[in-house]
Design brief:
The complex is a heterodimer of chains A (236) and B (509).
Chain A: E1 3-14, E2 17-28, E3 32-37, H1 43-51, E4 58-63, E5 66-67, H2 72-78, E6 79-82, H3 94-104, H4 111-121, H5 137-149, E7 155-159, H6 167-182, E8 186-190, H7 194-200, E9 203-208, E10 211-217, H8 223-235
Parallel strand pairs in A: 3-8, 3-9, 6-7, 7-8
Antiparallel strand pairs in A: 1-2, 1-4, 4-5, 9-10
Chain B: H1 9-22, H2 27-50, H3 57-83, H4 103-112, H5 118-135, H6 140-171, H7 175-197, H8 201-206, H9 210-222, H10 225-255, H11 260-266, H12 278-291, H13 294-314, H14 318-321, H15 324-335, H16 348-351, H17 358-387, H18 394-421, H19 438-463, H20 469-494, H21 496-506
Helix pairs in contact in B: 1-4, 2-5, 2-19, 3-5, 3-6, 3-9, 4-10, 5-6, 6-9, 6-10, 9-10, 12-17, 13-15, 13-17, 15-17, 15-18, 15-19, 17-18, 18-19, 18-20, 19-20
The chains are: A alpha/beta (236), B mainly alpha (509).
Chain lengths: 236, 509
């Protein structure tokens, strides 16, 4: 199966701090991959590079067959990204976010129907015309996931999508992941919530100090034995 | 007992100031801030010596006008904190929620930051120079006593203005309070118009209590110690009283639950049809970000209305109108332009993942900024032209117009460069929120003031030629320079590393 996300020798440095230390990553279509690890392991930085927000210091990144460094706009068109913090314009409403996304992504007529449907599924329809500055943390997370999935991207990048989200919101996020996967998208989820990572993804990559220390089926990290193994990977 | 409970406001303030100073990591910026602190003192000394060249027969004219300058300062001292919800803050409120900061510390920190307002600094320098000149020939001890009097007046007026600012901010936390303060504001405005149209401005100013301050300064100069000490004593007592009042008012205002932000964020807004044009769609979101932000909305209204009304009432000459746009354009730059991408705040990371966003985003921010700057300078120009004395030549009119256009263009060019060089996380949600840290605000205000004042003087000089076309021709290099500066900043924005740094910083990442 062809790789939808491919990173080779990916390195991201902030001055003397190396956030991502030359790792390789290959994610095929219809794959769901969890990025797990401690704070500062490089999970969010990796997703920012894949989303085109942050350029890599060295290495190559290809998204849906497009070189994300040389053709960032084409890569962005294929990616949907939910950042780890915020991700919403504070004085714009959810509907205005969707309108802007639809315009910039050149989504054709009919986007409103999908927007309304997603707003309903994430229980945000009733607040779709209120500015997001008044949203709770969980509402903001749900809206960010919705925006990432709105244009049915080939690559869905979710950074801490479950953080502070209620069970119904988690369910809606899981549904979206399943749906996009079924249509051929690759989904990458970065989270500290191991149980939910296992539930959402088939594969898992454990990061430590910017490097991949383990890659395995997510199910191997499930339960008490999986948690113990995960813990040993983080500390060994 | 928790030791922090007993920490006095002064000690808390000192600790906060120390931390703020430590947070300035760049040594050149520290030097720049130190230089900016000393600069007004240098300007006062230079001004005092410079005024010695003015003929003695002008001393009386200036002495007569000085109490009016004092009244002008009182108006500024009250208006400035009113506009900023009590004054500038050392730290955004959300960064201090974990600490037991006393309300009096919050009040006093806004007092410390009064000099961040460029108009305040300019007025203070002017008051010192004018008073020193009006009092008499320069002499170390006598002039010092007269300046001490005006210093006491400046401090008292500033403290009183901030106390009033906090009081109004507290009132405006409720619907009824907003209604009452709006009525008082409109009534004050109407009273001002009434006084103006009934030709009572001069009689009122003649009877202004600020005359007593000038008399005190004269007494200090001439060695009438008893009466001088009475004036200074009253002013110092007034200042101490207003500090106490301000402490109490801040404590009350900060305890009020406040419904304004909740009201804004919980209200459903009408949907507007989508736009197929990227630029229009971005401009619409940026407009919303400005108009739905309390400090920005208030700032824009004040910038556009107040200079226009004052210029209209003042009945200025066209020669003076050439100089007006500079300062107003500088004020427009400080509203949000020095950190323009903070309009998107946490949303900037998401926006950066949208295809086709990069160049239109830079253009949209620049246009919104230019719109505000032009609205402010043109309002002052149009307002001033309504009652301006006839121009000596058309060149004065073209010079004033070109000065307005060029100052706005320069401020936008400089502001966009600053937006890339000094990005800062700022929510611009609360009434006292500013787009940058106090140090950056002070440095940028001085930078804008220098550039725009120089530009205004350049056009004032061109106007003297009497050739109407010369200011138009003179505007070409200034506009080209602005566009070039802006374009080069745009090229930097197109660089992924620069853009990532801006986007992640304003998003707080």
């Amino acid at each position: 199966m062809s790789a939808v996300v491919e990173a080779r020798g990916l390195t991201v440095s902030f001055g003397p701090v190396v956030a991502v230390d030359g790792f390789d990553l290959t994610v095929p279509a219809r794959a769901t991959l969890a990025l797990v690890g401690r704070n500062g392991a490089g999970k969010s930085t990796t997703l920012k590079v894949l989303a085109g927000v942050l350029p890599p210091t060295t290495g190559s990144v290809s998204v849906a067959g497009v070189d994300a460094v040389r053709h960032p706009d084409e890569a962005r068109a294929r990616v949907g990204y939910c950042p780890d913090v915020g991700g919403l314009i504070p004085r714009a409403t959810p509907w205005e976010h969707l309108q802007l996304a639809a315009t910039l992504r050149s989504m054709g007529a009919g986007w409103e129907k999908r927007a309304e449907d997603l707003l309903d599924r994430f229980d945000l329809l009733g607040v779709s015309d209120r500015i997001t500055a008044g949203f709770s943390h969980g509402m903001g997370r749900r809206m960010s996931v919705l925006l990432a999935a709105f244009h049915e991207p080939e690559v869905l990048l979710l950074d801490e999508p479950f953080d502070g989200v209620d069970p119904l919101g988690v369910e809606a996020t899981m549904d979206v992941i399943r749906e996009l996967r079924a249509t051929g998208s690759a989904v990458l989820v970065s989270t500290h919530l191991l149980e939910l990572a296992v539930q959402a993804c088939e594969q898992a990559v454990v990061l430590r100090r910017g490097r991949v220390v383990a890659a395995a089926p997510a199910a191997e990290l499930a339960g008490a034995s999986g948690a113990a193994r995960y813990r040993s990977l983080l500390t060994s | 007992m928790n030791p922090s409970v007993n920490t006095s406001a002064s000690r808390q303030l000192l600790a906060l100031l120390r931390l703020r100073w430590r947070m300035i990591r760049s040594q050149p910026i520290r030097w720049a801030i130190a230089a900016l602190t000393i600069l007004p003192v240098g300007l006062v000394v230079a001004g005092l010596f410079g005024m010695q060249t003015v003929p003695d027969d002008q001393t009386l004219n200036l002495a007569v006008a000085t109490p009016t300058f004092y009244v002008g300062f009182v108006v500024l001292a009250v208006l400035a904190p009113l506009v900023s919800g009590g004054g500038y803050e050392l730290y955004p409120a959300d960064q201090l929620v974990a600490y037991p900061i006393r309300p009096s510390t919050a009040f006093r920190s806004t007092l410390i930051l009064a000099p961040v307002n460029l108009a305040w600094v300019i007025n203070v320098v002017a008051l010192f120079v004018v008073t020193g000149f009006a009092a008499g020939d320069l002499a170390w001890a006598p002039t010092s006593r007269s300046l001490l009097t005006v210093a006491a007046f400046i401090l008292t007026a500033t403290v009183a203005g901030h106390a009033i600012g906090w009081l109004v901010m507290g009132f405006r936390q409720s619907r009824r309070g907003r209604l009452v303060t709006n009525i008082i504001g409109i009534a004050a405005l109407l009273a001002g118009f009434l006084i103006f149209w009934t030709d009572n401005v001069i009689p009122l100013l003649d009877n202004s209590p600020t005359t007593l301050v000038l008399i005190g300064a004269f007494d200090g100069y001439s060695g009438e110690y008893r009466s001088w000490l009475v004036v200074v004593g009253v002013l110092v007592l007034g200042m101490a009283m207003f500090i106490r009042v301000g402490d109490a008012v801040a404590s009350w205002a900060l305890r009020r639950p406040g419904d304004h932000a909740d009201r804004t964020s919980s209200r459903s807004l009408p949907r507007r049809p989508s736009s197929p044009h990227v630029m229009y769609a971005l401009l619409r979101v940026d407009h919303a970000s400005v108009w739905r932000s309390t400090p920005l909305r208030r700032g824009v209204l004040v910038l556009v209305l107040v200079p226009g009304v004052i210029s209209a009432l003042a009945g200025m000459t066209w020669q003076s109108l050439v100089l007006v746009p500079g300062l107003i354009a500088a004020g427009a730059g400080l509203l949000f332009g020095i950190n323009a991408f903070t309009l998107d705040s946490t949303g900037s990371v998401w926006l950066a993942t949208l295809p086709g966003w990069v160049s239109p985003a830079y253009l949209a921010k620049s246009l919104i900024f230019l719109e505000v700057a032009l609205a402010a300078v043109l309002s002052a120009l149009i307002g001033g032209s309504l009652r301006a004395q006839p121009a000596n030549s058309i060149s004065e009119i073209t010079a004033a117009s070109m000065s307005a256009l060029c100052c706005a263009a320069l401020v936008v060019a400089l502001g966009m460069r600053s937006s890339l060089r000094n990005p800062h996380r700022a929510d611009l949600k609360g009434p006292r929120d500013t787009p940058a840290t106090p140090g950056v605000m002070a440095a940028q205000s001085m930078r804008f003031a220098l550039v725009t004042t120089f530009t205004s003087l350049y056009f004032a000089t061109l106007a003297l030629s009497g050739a109407w076309w010369l200011p138009l021709l003179g505007a070409v290099p200034v506009l080209l320079l602005s566009v070039l500066h802006w374009y080069r900043t745009g090229l930097a924005w197109a660089h992924p590393h620069v853009r990532a740094s801006v986007v992640l910083t304003v998003a707080g990442g």
